[in-house]
Amino acid sequence: MSPTSETLTAERILEATEEVLRRHGPAKATVVDVARALGVSHGSVYRHFRTKAVLRGAVTKRWLDRTTADLTALAAEDHGPEDLLRAWLAALFEAKRRKAGDDPELFATYQVLTEENGEVVGAHIADLTDQLTQIVRTGVDSGEFAATDPAATARAVFHATARFHDPAYAPAWRQPDIEAQFEAVVELVVRGLRTR
Amino acid sequence: MSPTSETLTAERILEATEEVLRRHGPAKATVVDVARALGVSHGSVYRHFRTKAVLRGAVTKRWLDRTTADLTALAAEDHGPEDLLRAWLAALFEAKRRKAGDDPELFATYQVLTEENGEVVGAHIADLTDQLTQIVRTGVDSGEFAATDPAATARAVFHATARFHDPAYAPAWRQPDIEAQFEAVVELVVRGLRTR
Predict the structure, then answer these.
(1) Do the chains contact at B192 and A190, CB–CB below 8 Å?
(2) What is the pLDDT of residues B108-138, one digit of tens each?
């Protein structure tokens, strides 16, 4: 069965694009390479993604959304706000670290792509801080957390923990005491939120 | 009076090196350029700094030490631990922001130099976290701060505030609400330290 006998969906194009980026690197990957990998014409790819830039933005969004999806599932579980915050920050760190460690070349590729897709990254960060705002708000409602402006406090939590999710810190994630560093910052942040 | 009539001190060489780096950029600046700027032979420069790498390390240390000196003076003033911590973090942010904003080219030059001088940067960070440890310890002694391990807590404070001193975030320092972002993180950190 040739690849063309399957329906050409946006998702199949994005999968192939990631594979092409992995193989050729972000500088050399072209739409023609993607079309060739799928056994279709480049016109078929352009029918789904109008330009190469749009395709690169979409594949970046797909990569970032994979992190958000894990965390959304977690946020839906039944935890108290403090446990949920700890679990959420640990899951975010774990997801980023896994991406950086499991496939360093693909991670480096996406670091180039995120730099050229500021808007997609901005939307990703807004997604994450929205989830954090929801956790902070739940804690305020239950009387466990103090925050006059949950959105601003959530952003402060996101900034204070940047060392453990900002890809710029990926080299630090291999430090032998990185877990202890993470725990110490989370402890400081959780204590800062508590009404006590 | 020709420049050579002054005594050739290490400090004069470092001053000239910074000027040469500013003019030629980190890739092109040579020891011969430094010697020429001082009106001396390159041998005279090498008598103070054995190699070009040693000279580049020393000029990087001098640049970083300027930040530390301001903060050391502040730490000697008579403040309560919480006020001192707030003032220290604000002074660190201000010093870094001033360096980045006043002379962006020199700042970019030193970003290249710090990347090639990991040890010098490590010592600078150790200096800063030592000062923070002293502040945390004073707060623990006075009963205002809770910390079982002041050095670990100081490091957590340093990591939690990285957005406001790590040069990797220099582009974010121009955001219109960066002061509010800073205040929100400092508030979270100070609340996290308080015994209350």
Answers:
(1) yes
(2) 999 899 988 989 999 999 999 999 999 999 9
Q: Is the pLDDT of residue A75 over 80?
A: no
- Contact (CB<8Å) A163/B161: no
| ipTM confidence score | 0.89
Question: C-alpha angle with apex A149: A148 to A154, nearest 5 degrees?
Answer: 120
Task: Tell me if residue A145 falls in helix, strand or coil.
Answer: strand
Measured between beta carbons, the chain B residues lying within 8 angstroms of A187 are 156, 192
- Helix locations, A103-177, DSSP H: 104-116, 118-141, 150-160
pLDDT band of A76, cuts 50, 70, 90: confident
Q: CA neighbours within 13 Å on the CB side: how many for B148?
A: 3
Chain B contact probe: residue of A190, A191, A196 with most B CBs at under 10 A: A191
Q: For residue A160, give the nearest of B153, B185, B193 by CB distance.
A: B185
All residues of chain A having their beta carbon less than 8 Å from the beta carbon of residue B155 are 181, 184
Tokens of B143: 């009963």
Instruction: Compute, in degrees rounded to 10, the torsion defined by CA atoms B9, B15, B20, B25.
Output: 130
> What are the structural domains of chain B?
1-50 (1.10.10.60), 62-193 (1.10.357.10)
| pLDDT, tens only, A92-114 | 999 999 999 888 888 999 989 99
